[in-house]
Predict the structure.
Amino acid sequence: MSAHSPSRRSILRGAAVAGAAAALSPLVNSASAQAATSGSYTVRYDNGRRQTILGLGFEIQSDSIGSNNGGLPDTISGVPHDLTRSEQARFYQQMLKAGRSDRGFRYCRLAMGLYYRGLDSSKKFMRGRYPGQTAELADMCKRAGIEGLSVEYWSPAPGWKSNDSYIGGKLKSFEPDFLSDFADALVADLDYLTAGGMHISQWGLQNEPPLSTPYSSCVYSPAEYTATFKAAAAKVRAKYPEVMITADSFEGWSGEIGKALIADPKALDLVDAWTYHRIGHDSNDQIDHDFQREAHGKLVFNNEFEYLDNETSDWRTVNTAQSIMNWMTFQNSPTWYWLHALKPVANAEAPGYSLGFWRPPNDTDFSRFPDLKPGHWTWNPQNWNAVAGFVKYLPWDSVRYQVDESTVLRDQRIMAWKTPGSRPVLALTNRSATESFTYTVDMQTATRFEGRRYGPATNDKSLGLKRGPKLSIEVPPLSIEFWIGNS
């Protein structure tokens, strides 16, 4: 973590406070109230301090995958590798920093065994698959101001697996000596990335461990995962004590693997955060379900979000924004991850998975994005505009504050925070496709607020100024707004 960020242990202490305060957040008695056109709100800057929001994360496709997630081609293609030098700079500044002068996204999720899948001669230790891959990723993190990697395995190196392949299978053994050696190898992978110039912020044993897929995967039963996790996480914590250790990158504490970890005190002690994949879900999910109920004081957050039907839509733009807000408001999450920053234009899944598209140098099919040159990238606005305002106006280590709501509405959501510089900020949405909605908000401060609007085809539109403490804000259909106060 950066020198100015809270340590892993201070974050965990803060999680317990936020969890105790969660009872003040309205998890029940909400109303869909589809016909509602107005609501009244009070931001509790007086006594409503909640969790520290660390910042947002994304995943980087730094190597190739078949269209529709169809296998692992030999083709060398990825980001930032394929981009021209000038397009790399534009990608870092305009997307990863969202136009900020300092930093935007905090975490980059690195898919070990999938988008980082080179091997040493023993096939037990991971390396870059092509010359310069590791250095390019380190350069991206440095130039984009990213704190560090969220290192997570889609598959361990094939030398440890029953089928000697990245795709499918499981570990060759779960005997203690084998798992000890395997854990040493996972720590060695972190050492290699660190020596290559990257910082490790988070670590996870396995992406979606119950699933076998046509791309990189490794299947664990609950007992197998628990044994492996205890061996590996203990050594990761010993070597990298400030790294946040996550589990299980699928169903968090709710699934069978999570329950097995909870039943084992030594395993549970090694969990810093439960990670979920509520991929493409309606944002109502975080209002209707309590993801903290059996978290045992650990953090909870969603570390992958996209839309699996290869599509996006205007409604989904606002739904994605509300997913961010509702995880943070109702579940006290410290972070949230979109899936891919960029996907290649030829990948069928790209519209639902990406914030933007790039054309690899070997792509000669110009039927999609005919004006996009090889080595260049462009926006996927319905996804990017959902996330962009949070990357730009929710800086690292902002603190969320309670908002008292006259009625908890599902299509009109609100969230308030203060930046580390003490600027009050308000985020508002309107997911209705037909009706405007008027927010009357007591900000409890007479400061002046500047409005900015996002939507399916709108990015950072200026809305002028309003002065507190009482703000009356009419939000059009399918819109996301940010109101940023003076410090």
User: Anything to note?
Assistant: Residues 6 and 397 are 8 Å apart (CA to CA). The chain is about 25% helix and 25% strand.
